[in-house]
Write a structure and sequence with these properties.
- With 466 residues, this protein is mainly alpha-helical.
- Helix content is 77%, strand content 0%.
- The protein has 15 helices and no strands.
Length: 466
């Protein structure tokens, strides 16, 4: 092979790299599913204020993502340019998640608001320091197209392991404490879960740091004149290949965040199911099937390309969501379980989008002769965070608007039907729109193969001259 990037990388490196996603995603899902309900029903913060606090902190996180990406692009240390942040971010994230779920006793609404805002800003800042360099490193440890898809397949695999941990650990602890409706037990379960998640973060980030040694290199082709920060940001947004991909991803992620934030409300007040029943009998099978579907999506993207499978997977997820969830009868486990299994298969297509982003970075490198994975994945993360902020904010406002009473023993009779409309058509709409916007993505597999041939010639030339 003319360049080192085309050599297959060991499975142990792929798996070790992806393992960091376990801690990252455990924090994300733990927060998305439990945080809003914890602060409204246990801490006693109003849904509107809680939604505003969460949205503000996520907006800050979104803004900091491309900044962190550019910082890691320009970092030069003996440990590499991305790897040092795996250690720093892992430590900060483990400490901040403990603070988030251990609030002091505060009497006023504004005291509770500012504690949530401050602690969640810390969590999201630490998440940025860890996750942006990590995802950028995934686009650099191999240059080969199918190997990249495999790398991001491992990343999605461990991401879903993290989802399982972030989802199951709190409810497993709560069930072991006895009365699941006890506020004291709920609070204890969340604190203990945060402690376990903190350990997972430390172990997974350290593992990724160790196994990627030697894969975080500065290649000769990277030694070019760098654009100033602001001009770099503008050039990314003007990239005709990146922008349609980013917009479709943002729209779909709003739906995913909205789904996570409102799910426990829907299952409790529409289907009359206990939290443990929902987690074990519906959400757990969903994520298990999602994990098992990853090899299928890796295979199908190799055989038929990336664009059409990604579209069909996301569209099918949206259509299924819109149709099914308003129809489920209260108290029944089997219908939502069946839909969760189908949804898990369709949701596996998400890994293709991350893999496609590495193709966009290749396009940018061909045009600019610069190597800017960090900046692009920073914008990618920013899009994720902005969509999460929007999804969380509208959840808080909508819960107030439909008449949900935080902490009340009884809700109005209409609340179940209104939640069904939000959880079904309200969520599915974003997936369907995002999938159709993705059809405008202009970079085909054939074009990307040509781009890689050009880059390979440049890399070979650069290696011969050094």
């Amino acid at each position: 092979m003319p360049v080192a990037e085309l050599k297959p990388i060991p499975t142990s490196v792929k798996a070790g790299y992806g393992f960091a996603e376990t801690g990252i995603t455990a924090v994300q899902l733990f927060s998305q599913i439990y945080l809003l309900k914890f602060y409204t029903e246990i801490v006693g913060l109003s849904p509107t204020l809680a939604g505003i606090a969460l949205a503000m902190s996520v907006v800050w996180d979104a803004i900091s993502d491309p900044l962190m990406g550019t910082v890691s692009d320009r970092t030069r240390t003996r440990l590499g340019k991305r790897r040092p942040y795996l250690l720093i971010g892992g430590l900060l994230l483990s400490l901040s998640i403990l603070l988030l779920f251990s609030p002091p006793t505060l009497a006023s609404q504004w005291g509770k608001f500012f504690y949530l805002l401050g602690s969640y800003v810390l969590v999201n800042t630490a998440m940025t320091v860890l996750s942006v360099p990590h995802i950028a490193l995934g686009g650099e440890i191999t240059f080969e197209r199918n190997d990249r898809t495999s790398v991001f397949g491992w990343r999605l695999f461990f991401s879903n392991i993290g989802m399982l941990l972030g989802m199951i650990i709190p409810v497993a602890i709560l069930s072991s404490l006895g009365d699941e409706s006890s506020k004291a037990n709920i609070q204890t379960s969340r604190v203990m879960a945060a402690e376990i998640v903190a350990v997972v973060i430390l172990v997974s980030s350290l593992t990724a740091f160790l196994v990627t040694k030697g894969y975080d290199k500065i290649t000769p082709i990277e030694k070019v004149k760098k654009l100033p920060f602001f001009k770099s940001f503008v050039s990314v947004l003007r990239n005709p290949v990146f922008f349609p991909l980013l917009i479709s991803f943002v729209i779909a992620t709003i739906g995913r965040t909205f789904n996570s934030a409102i799910s426990l409300f829907y299952y409790e007040y529409r289907l009359n199911l206990k939290e443990s029943d929902v987690i074990i009998n519906i959400l757990l099978p969903f994520f298990v099937v999602l994990i098992l579907s990853i090899p299928f999506w890796v295979w199908i993207s190799k055989k038929y390309g990336k664009k059409i499978p990604a579209f069909l997977g996301i569209f099918s997820l949206g259509a299924l969501t819109m149709i099914a969830y308003p129809l489920f009868p209260p108290g029944e486990i089997r219908p939502p379980l069946l839909v969760a299994i189908l949804g898990g298969i369709f949701a596996g297509s998400i890994l293709i989008l991350d893999s496609i982003l590495t193709d966009v970075v290749d396009y940018d490198e061909m045009k600019t002769r610069d190597h800017r994975e960090g900046l692009y994945f920073g914008f990618w993360k920013m899009g994720t965070k902005l969509s999460q902020a929007f999804g969380i904010a509208i959840t808080g406002f909508i819960l107030d608007a439909i008449g949900f009473q935080a902490g009340a023993e009884q809700q109005i009779p209409e609340i179940g039907f209104r939640l069904a409309l939000l959880f079904g058509p309200g969520v599915g709409f974003f997936f369907v729109v995002g999938s159709f916007l993705f059809l405008f993505f202009p970079l085909t597999d054939e074009k990307h193969i040509r781009i890689q041939k050009i880059l390979l010639k440049r890399k070979s030339k650069a290696e011969r001259s050094h």
